[in-house]
Write a sequence for this structure.
DNA sequence: CTGAAAGCGCTTACAG
DNA sequence: CTGAAAGCGCTTACAG
């Protein structure tokens, strides 16, 4: 109301008739303060709307209590990862700030480095790829941890990019009698897309089934539609393994446009368990990926690093197959 | 490498053989410094990896150069809004930090207030509803601006929640001969959902067409599916106005389960132009909402407030109708 | 063109 | 149980 600058701890001290030290002790609960003094200080602080200046506190304590989470904001599933990470961080008493950095890998790396040395964060978790130079190996600087399903730099990424269930798709469908396959892939600079493509190629090779090859190369639905439109008339019966659900819904559309039924002429699998996949006609067989839990685990890892503890052993799988209508009747191997 | 704490401007000064003042002037480009001195300072700063401690700078200048963007991270379209807002902020030389705050309105309000008085941000833009108490009216404190399509508190929200195009849906379909309507609504505590419901009710009343009422009340696809499954057998021919595309895809599924064709037995409209809507069978007539531009405009508004300028006059509409297959042949009124 | 000094708001040994 | 004083790293009048 009155002045134009927010009240400081000095204001509280003056009004409460105590020292700034006592205010600090009373409010942070650290020093020993008599109950009555603490009471008075808290009342004054409340009444004048005092809130500590975090920049000042952080500068003094060299502990900001803040963690940065970096995301590219491109995919819905990043949301879930961020939420999982924030959840764990908050439970541990940290505040998280999400920085959405699009732009190139090099720029992201720069920005991440800035955040790391800016002294505002105690740790940084990134869900988008950065160059290895941004990743801290020692404890002399702010720890930067990368937990990403997508990696433009050919560096491995862990369970979120795990594509082993794609082998189960191919094996189960082959078991059910399907002899001809097609993979509609995502962009090659994504570790997840690469892993799926490689798993696909290994599976068709191992099982000795026919493959019409790997097509696609982008994530959007239109790519899936075009992939089907480009198929020869005698392609069916065909099992289409799409790299995600968006591609799969495009495949569905393309099949309808060509008069092919699913399942029937085509069977189809997706990936990610997007919300619409349960309601398409037919509904999509897909992989449910627990991005939220993936985010939680990544944050637990960062927390362990901060505390110099051993990383928690990771338990249940993050992925599971959702058999639905688009694959027709199958006898799941697992 | 060496010490465990990052280099400070004092370190740079010592090594470069100048004062801390000169380092500051050289690096911020503010004071008058000779070219050679500036050169040397910058080289030293670079060589020892100096980066200013933002907390310290912020405390001194009382200008953080940072803006907070608050989101709930619940909807995909929030992403686009955040990106639009960040884009505008960056262009104006600000860094934005995205805080995702789920929890209740009261808690969000508290957290927002903390951010506002924490002294770290020059302005705050929230895309999720907060209580009016968090919204600053004067310039004595950090400006907090709410730009949300969703508002739990019955306070108006502007163009993102504008539902007037729903009237065009109903009018155009009535013009095309449809006589019976149904609205599958979203949750009532969303301003956008309320606006759509009210616009629907006004439209059917004005046009004198039959309405089977307003059903639904949640956003997910399953609600749309259930709405159709609950319909009497003689409901078709029926025009279904769904409050968003997720509900619409559920309606599509429900219709298929009952053996009803779309368009034919049912015509259907959605809202938001979700990416899958172009690929469902039939594709969804919907409203394209330019969330990214909505985010840009909101940030321009905040920036104008910060600079005590007049808010920029807002130009083109944020919404437009996408006529697709789910409404069958119509002659758009507009 | 350059530097010594003060101060942003807080916390924390230290002394009483 | 309480307070005076120092200092976190920076910027900025001010004096030279």
């Amino acid at each position: 109301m009155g002045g134009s600058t927010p009240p400081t701890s000095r204001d509280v001290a003056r009004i409460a008739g105590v020292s700034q030290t006592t205010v600090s002790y009373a409010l942070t609960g650290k020093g020993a303060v008599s109950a009555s003094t603490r009471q008075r200080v808290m009342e004054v602080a409340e009444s004048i709307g005092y809130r500590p200046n975090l920049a000042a506190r952080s500068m003094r304590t060299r502990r900001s209590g803040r963690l940065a989470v970096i995301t590219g904001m491109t995919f819905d599933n990043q949301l879930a990862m961020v939420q999982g990470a924030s959840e764990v961080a908050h439970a541990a008493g940290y505040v998280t700030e999400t920085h959405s950095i699009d732009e190139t890998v090099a720029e992201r790396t720069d920005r991440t480095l800035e955040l790391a040395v800016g002294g505002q964060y105690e740790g940084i978790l990134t869900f988008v790829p950065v160059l290895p130079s941004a990743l801290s190996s020692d404890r002399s600087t702010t720890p930067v941890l990368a937990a990403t399903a997508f990696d433009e730099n050919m560096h491995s990424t862990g369970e979120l990019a795990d594509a082993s269930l794609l082998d189960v798709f191919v094996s189960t469908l082959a078991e059910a009698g399907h002899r001809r396959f097609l993979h509609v892939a995502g962009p090659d600079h994504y570790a997840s897309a690469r892993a799926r493509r490689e798993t696909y190629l290994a599976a068709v090779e191992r099982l000795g089934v026919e493959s019409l090859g790997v097509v696609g190369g982008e994530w959007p639905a239109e790519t899936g539609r075009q992939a089907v439109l480009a198929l020869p008339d005698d392609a069916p019966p065909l099992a289409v393994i799409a790299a995600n659900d968006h591609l799969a819904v495009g495949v569905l559309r393309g099949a309808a446009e060509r008069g092919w039924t699913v399942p029937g002429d085509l069977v189809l699998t997706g990936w990610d368990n997007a919300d619409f996949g349960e309601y398409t006609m037919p509904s999509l067989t897909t992989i449910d990926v627990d991005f939220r839990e993936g985010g939680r685990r990544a944050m637990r890892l960062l927390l362990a690093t901060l505390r110099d503890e051993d990383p928690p052993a990771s338990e249940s799988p993050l992925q599971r197959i959702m058999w639905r209508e688009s694959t027709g009747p199958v006898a799941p191997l697992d």
Residues 18-22, 25, 31-34, 37, 56, 58-62, 119 of chain A lie near DNA strand D (CB under 10 Å from a C1'). The domain at 160-289+319-327 of chain A is CATH 3.40.50.2300 (Rossmann fold). The first strand of chain A starts at residue 66 and ends at 71.
